[in-house]
């Protein structure tokens, strides 16, 4: 009966898992079975899978790069402008002698971290945002629509909008502008489900419900406005503040250096630069205004305290002034010392004046004597030796003049008589000088007596004041205490005001722009190199994932190395794919293409068979597989043909009585055959059919019996083989698949060389477990295997060559040894081959 391939595969899996063909293995056999076809890492299989997956890997890599290109094409670039500010607040007042005004380095260091944190908050405060919106019009964004993305026209819009809005619904809505001519445009805005607008002239006031606006031209207006589509959006304060909060970054760059970094991100690089620079200016103005306000408040407080303290000080001064005016003193202790010193000084002065008066009396006495006679030789200067203490310049001059006249008179008298005119003249001059001197002495005596009287009067007053000092001292101290207090406070306030003014005048600028913002040339996102790298990495990871998945899912035999590694049977050889034509059923092709790669491969198998079972004696060769479709019939008929071409007589028996195919390979009928022979309906000679090769015959399976296994166990089967041995050298038996039925096992026990067919890229690795189990359980020591339908690999064919080290291999003979069918693959077949 006919069984489909899927049903066969399911039946094989069931039998493999339940052990339908034999008893469950035990002991060491169980361990060997578990290790058969184990899941160890196979580098060869991985390379094979990777090579077959290479087109898919390249396609996935290309898809990754294409995805990166699409992402870059449809993603707006984000630009980042950055400036660095230095908060360097320090005082230079100490350089002019007011060190306290500077505050000290320790105080400045302790305030640094707190101050920087406060500055960061100030930059991101609503006050700064308000000033920033006044400096830059952020309430209107202008755009132009490109092929894919829209572009913001910051500072380059061909028009500007003036508006007055009363309906908040117009905020954050798109106003489409399309120029119909150089002076007219069409305005459209969708409000709810209603489209508002119309066609207007440039500069015309547009009145819509809840809004009035006017489009005015700018310096950026150019020719060709009608080719572009523009739109603008009105933004409310909350949207603008959210936009600033989202894109503005302020952080402490270096706390030790007191530096702050301000960054802003935007799709427009010029806008990002403009906002950062404007923010720096707004922040600077805010700090200046804050400092001015602080200074004004401090100075106002100092002025108020100075006024109040000044009034109190004035009252205290008035009280002390009245006391001083009334009592004539303001320092009793100091006045005591002063009065004592003055009394001693007056006493000393009076003694000096009295001594001068005595001297003048002596001089006056001498001046009252008679006039000088011719015989007088003594002068007044000689009579008063201590005249220098008088300290009277006029008197001293007159005395010197008198002395000079007397000396001149003495000289003249030595040579002349007294009666001479010269002597008389000089005598008259001396007498006149003596009279003048006398008058001057009298005047000086009067002055000295007046001075002595004045000193006596002063000494009396001081003596009276000295006696009244103790009571005044007590009252004076009471009045001085508030005066000193208010005076010290007033002086301190004045000093503080001076220090504060000096500190503000000597404080350098606490705001420096170390690095102003510039328009960035390259966006920070997306980074083209990184995006392409991610796309390539993604494609590569998907490729590796595909290779890994295909490797893990790879459960078929693809190469002879896998077959050798997972099978305990000897490998007879490998049969390449027959590519001359598609065979609907198995056919013998070695007689039609004797120089093809298939023919050469089967010749290599024939040679390798001679090492296992010599050709000089009769041989029974069984060919089986795990399931149908693995090519056992194809191998059987073509191996029989090759052996027959070597001169041996070969007969092929089709024992796959459930699905006979040998007769189809030779285009023969299946009316009689093995089944009719075993039931003695026909003789062997009646069922033998001849082929195009003289030494090759075959017997078809015959009609399908209900009990194929029982027929094979019938003694008639052995009799048939004995009968055939008399005529043929080699008996080739096409057995049923051993993975589905047990008929093949019965035949393999009788065979000299049991051959197990494995089809490349079709037979599963688990099938080899079945084959290894058959070898162990049935002691098939001569079990051989053939890899069928293998794809060509490299210039010499199939890995190891047809012999694989066992015998005949065509690799040493070069490419020209056999002739392949001249069939040029189509483009579709080539593409299919890449992805197969």
Automatic annotation (TrEMBL):
Domain of life: Bacteria
Entry-linked InterPro entries: AAA_dom, Bact_polysacc_biosynth/exp, GNVR, P-loop_NTPase, Wzc-like_C
EC number from the UniProt entry: 2.7.10.2
Keyword list, A-Z: ATP-binding, Coiled coil, Kinase, Nucleotide-binding, Transferase, Tyrosine-protein kinase
Keyword Nucleotide-binding: yes
Enzyme class: transferase
Signal peptide region: none
Domain AAA: 619-748
Region (Disordered), start-end ranges: 15-37
Entry keyword ATP-binding: yes
Chain intervals with Polar residues compositional bias: 15-30
A single GO molecular function term of this UniProt record: kinase activity
Reaction equation(s) it catalyzes: L-tyrosyl-[protein] + ATP = O-phospho-L-tyrosyl-[protein] + ADP + H(+)
Stretches of the chain forming a coiled coil according to its record: 336-370, 395-461
Residues in Tyrosine-protein kinase G-rich domain copies: 476-550
Family indicated by similarity: Belongs to the CpsD/CapB family.
Protein name: non-specific protein-tyrosine kinase
Lineage: Bacteria, Pseudomonadati, Bacteroidota, Cytophagia, Cytophagales
């Amino acid at each position: 009966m006919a069984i489909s391939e899927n049903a066969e595969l399911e039946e094989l899996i069931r039998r493999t898992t339940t052990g339908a063909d034999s008893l469950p293995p035990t002991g060491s056999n169980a361990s060997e079975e578990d290790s058969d076809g184990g899941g160890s890492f196979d580098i060869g299989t991985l390379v094979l899978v990777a090579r077959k997956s290479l087109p898919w890997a390249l396609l996935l890599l290309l898809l990754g790069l294409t995805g990166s290109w699409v992402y870059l094409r449809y993603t707006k670039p984000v630009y980042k402008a950055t400036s660095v500010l230095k908060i360097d607040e320090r005082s230079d007042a100490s350089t002019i002698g007011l060190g306290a005004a500077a505050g000290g380095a320790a105080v400045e260091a302790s305030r640094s971290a707190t101050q920087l944190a406060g500055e960061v908050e100030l930059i991101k405060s609503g006050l700064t945002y308000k000033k920033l919106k006044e400096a830059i019009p952020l309430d209107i964004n202008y755009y132009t629509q490109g092929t894919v993305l829209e572009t913001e026209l910051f500072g380059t819009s061909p028009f500007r909008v003036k508006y007055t809005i009363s309906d908040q619904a117009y905020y954050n809505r798109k106003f489409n502008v399309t120029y119909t001519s150089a002076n007219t445009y069409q305005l459209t805005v969708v409000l709810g489900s209603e489209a508002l607008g119309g066609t207007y002239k440039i500069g015309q006031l547009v009145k819509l419900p809840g809004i009035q606006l006017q489009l005015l031209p700018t310096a950026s207006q150019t020719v060709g406005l009608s080719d572009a589509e523009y739109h603008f959006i009105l933004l409310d304060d909350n949207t603008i503040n959210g936009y600033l909060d989202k894109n503005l970054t302020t952080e402490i760059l270096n706390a030790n250096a007191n530096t702050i970094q301000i960054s802003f991100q935007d799709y427009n690089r010029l806008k990002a630069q403009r906002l950062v620079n404007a923010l720096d200016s707004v922040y600077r103005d805010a700090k200046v205004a804050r400092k001015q306000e602080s200074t004004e408040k401090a100075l106002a407080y100092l002025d108020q305290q100075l006024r109040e303290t000044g009034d109190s000080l004035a009252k205290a001064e008035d009280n002390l002034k009245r006391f001083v005016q009334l009592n004539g003193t303001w320092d009793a202790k100091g006045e005591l010392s002063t009065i004592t010193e003055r009394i001693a000084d007056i006493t000393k002065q009076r003694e000096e004046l009295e001594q001068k008066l005595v001297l003048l009396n002596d001089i006056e006495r001498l001046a009252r004597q008679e006039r000088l006679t011719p015989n007088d030789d003594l002068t007044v200067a000689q009579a008063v030796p201590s005249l220098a203490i008088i300290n009277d310049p006029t008197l001293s001059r007159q005395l010197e003049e008198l002395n000079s006249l007397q000396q001149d008179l003495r000289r003249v008298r030595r040579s002349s008589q007294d009666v001479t005119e010269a002597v008389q003249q000089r005598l008259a001059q001396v007498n006149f000088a003596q009279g003048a001197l006398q008058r001057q002495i009298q005047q000086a005596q009067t002055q000295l007596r007046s001075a002595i009287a004045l000193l006596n009067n002063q000494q009396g007053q001081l003596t009276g004041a000295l006696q009244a000092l103790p009571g005044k001292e007590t009252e004076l101290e009471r009045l001085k205490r508030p005066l000193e207090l208010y005076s010290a406070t007033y002086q301190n306030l004045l000093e503080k005001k001076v220090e504060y003014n000096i500190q503000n005048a000597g404080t350098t600028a606490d705001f420096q722009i170390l690095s102003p913002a510039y328009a960035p040339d390259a966006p920070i996102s997306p980074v083209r190199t990184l995006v392409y790298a991610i796309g390539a990495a993604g494609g590569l990871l998907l490729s590796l994932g595909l290779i890994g998945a295909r490797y893990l899912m790879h459960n078929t035999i693809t190469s002879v190395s896998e077959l050798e590694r997972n099978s305990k049977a000897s490998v007879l050889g490998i049969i390449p794919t027959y590519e001359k034509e598609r065979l609907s059923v198995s056919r013998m092709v070695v007689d039609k293409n004797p120089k093809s790669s298939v023919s050469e491969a089967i010749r290599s198998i024939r040679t390798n068979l001679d090492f296992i079972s010599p050709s000089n004696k009769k041989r029974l060769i069984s060919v089986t597989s795990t399931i149908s479709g693995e090519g056992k019939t194809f191998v059987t008929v073509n191996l029989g043909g090759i052996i027959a071409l070597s001169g041996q007589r070969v007969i092929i028996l089709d024992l796959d009585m459930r699905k006979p195919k040998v007769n189809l390979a030779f285009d023969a009928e299946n009316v009689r055959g093995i089944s009719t022979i075993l039931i003695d309906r026909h003789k062997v000679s009646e069922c033998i059919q001849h082929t195009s090769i003289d030494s090759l015959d075959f017997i078809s399976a015959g009609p399908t019996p209900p009990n194929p296994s029982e027929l094979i166990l019938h003694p008639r089967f052995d009799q048939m083989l004995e009968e055939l041995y008399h005529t043929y050298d080699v008996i080739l038996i096409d057995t049923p698949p051993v993975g589905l039925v047990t008929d093949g096992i019965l035949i393999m026990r009788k065979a000299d060389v049991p051959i197990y067919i494995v089809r490349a890229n079709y037979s599963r690795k688990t099938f080899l477990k079945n084959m290894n189990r058959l070898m162990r359980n049935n002691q098939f020591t001569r079990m051989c295997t053939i890899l069928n339908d293998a794809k060509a690999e490299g210039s010499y064919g199939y890995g190891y060559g047809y012999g694989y080290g066992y015998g005949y291999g065509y690799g040493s003979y070069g490419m020209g040894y056999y002739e392949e069918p001249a069939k040029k693959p189509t483009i579709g077949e080539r593409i299919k081959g890449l992805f197969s």
